[in-house]
Amino acid sequence: MGPARRTLIQFKNILVKTLSDRLKKIFAEKLPKTKLVSYFVGCYPTPEISLELIKEAIDNGVSILEIGYCTSEASAEGPIIKAAHDHVLSNGHNLNDIIKLVKDIREYNQDVGIVLMGYIANLYKYPISNFVDDIKVAGADAVLVVDAPHELKEENQLREALNKNGLSLIKLVAPTTDDNRLKDIVKIASGFLYQVNVSGVTGVKSANEADVTNFVKRIRNLTDIPICSGFGIKSPEDAKKMANSGCNGVIVGSAFVKYIQDNIENKDLPQSLGNLVKNFTEELK
């Protein structure tokens, strides 16, 4: 093996370690006690404004970003996020634009976690191997695929490719997940576990603190992987209540996307969104 080839392999190993360690480092930090995970529809309302919004979110304490890549088949999304997806698609943006956004975010900040969230069809068409290569170079840490159970062949292909590249596959568990299936999921999940608080689509129902606490306990009996609690968290007060459940992070999506929709003409939108994000992070210290 020549010195150039050896140096390339060593560089790749360092890169893999850096990427795989970022989420671990975030959850190992004592403060904030509960991490804020924020969901944004990538390139919404435009790629330029989307980046500015996300920068403000980072500057105001977001620990992990979930960046939604758009699809016309957003089956798990409520009307708020679905409308944002449709807006981005109508402007002609695609997964390549989302990956470019990830690269821009990573250039702005080296510490925030970045999870790409969406649906399997987009990755299958990309295809999967190229997608993983490209997001690794861009600086992403993980992928969450909403509609890909672990029995699906394409999910296994994605998980294998991510594992080889030191990236995580975030798995979803819901109140309807039985114990046997929960055991199977926690065995293959990495990064953190996305705990869905309520059944149905995003942005509609509110989460119940007692139910979420009991669900966290169920998961904790099986694994010590970090748990992030999502769906039904609409306000800073909701976030504070969910933090009391014992989860490691709370996930807020529809509340931020709706705020963007309601204030889309406001020239100071990034700064005002940053203030809203700060209201959440202040409750999670």
Q: What topology does this entry show?
A:
Layout (H helix, E strand, L loop, with lengths): L2 H26 L6 E7 L5 H13 L4 E5 L10 H12 L4 H14 L4 E6 L1 H6 L2 H11 L3 E4 L7 H12 L3 E6 L5 H10 L4 E4 L12 H12 L6 E4 L5 H8 L5 E4 L1 H9 L6 H14 L3
Parallel strand pairs: 1-2, 1-8, 2-3, 3-4, 4-5, 5-6, 6-7, 7-8
Helix pairs in contact: 2-4, 2-12, 4-6, 10-12
Structural features, described:
The chain is globular. Helix 8 (179-188) links the parallel strand 5 (168-173) and strand 6 (193-196). It has helices spanning 3-28, 47-59, 79-90, 95-108, 120-125, 128-138, 153-164, 179-188, 209-220, 236-243, 254-262, 269-282; strands at residues 35-41, 64-68, 113-118, 142-145, 168-173, 193-196, 227-230, 249-252. Mean pLDDT is 90; it is low at 1-19 and 200-204. An 8-stranded parallel barrel has the order 1-2-3-4-5-6-7-8, surrounded by 9 helices. The longest helix is centred in the N-terminal third of the chain and has 26 residues, at 3-28. The protein is built from 12 helices and 8 strands. With 285 residues, it is α/β, with parallel strands linked by helices.
Give me a quick take on this structure:
With 285 residues, the chain is of the alpha/beta class. The chain contains 12 helices and 8 strands.
Strand composition percent: 5-15%
The whole-number mean of residue pLDDT values reads 90
How many strands? 8
- Morphology: globular
Q: Roughly what percent helix?
A: 40-55%
SSE series: HEHEHHEHHEHEHEHEHEHH
Main structural class: alpha/beta
N→C terminal distance: 51 Å
Number of helices: 12
State Rg.
Answer: 18 Å
Strand order of the largest sheet: 1-2-3-4-5-6-7-8
Q: Can you tell me the residue ranges where pLDDT is under 50 for at least 5 consecutive residues? A: 1-19, 200-204
Major pleated sheet: 8 strands, parallel, barrel
